[in-house]
Design a protein that fits this description.
Helix content: 55-70%
Radius of gyration: 20 Å
Strand content: under 5%
Number of helices: 5
Oligomer: single chain
Length: 153
């Protein structure tokens, strides 16, 4: 079963941010089409694409709808098939590293050594998170669970 295509819309060229998101969503659908996905997943994706194709929204409202549909599709694909976009784990683990490792290290430095060193914990945590996330991204690529697209906000 194939994923249906997103229909072309007129007037997107004038709206730069909407055009970028629209193109990104089309690329995501193209990448997902190359994967061997079960029919239930393809049906879910097609329902989301059909909803976008049939909507009359424009501008910011269309942009929000596209982001919502993209998030819904990515959540399902991640949850059911562990398929992720490029640098997914790196971005996730950089945030986790700063909050999980960086803040406790910063507190330890600040309380034990000098409060001036309080700010040095966050970059250390970010580095730990970057390393862990990069390894997970490489593992996903090796297992062919990574899409050849990096999603931008």
């Amino acid at each position: 079963m194939k994923i249906i295509k997103l229909k072309e819309r007129e007037g997107l060229i004038n709206e730069n941010s909407l055009n970028k998101i629209y193109i990104q969503f089309k690329e995501l659908l193209s990448e997902l089409n190359m994967k061997e996905l079960p029919d239930t997943t393809v049906i879910f994706i097609n329902e989301n694409v059909e909803e976008l194709n049939s909507t009359l929204l424009q501008g910011k409202d269309l942009q929000k709808r596209i982001k919502k549909q993209q998030t819904n599709i990515l959540k399902l694909v991640l949850k059911e098939h562990k398929i992720v976009p490029k640098n997914y784990y790196r971005k996730l683990w950089m945030l986790l590293g700063m909050s999980t490792f960086g803040i406790p290290i910063a507190l330890a430095f600040g309380l034990c050594i000098n409060m001036g060193l309080f700010g040095s914990g966050l970059p250390i945590g970010m580095g730990i998170g970057f390393t862990v996330g990069s390894r997970l991204d490489k593992k996903a690529l090796k297992e062919e669970r990574q899409l050849n697209i990096e999603l931008k906000s």
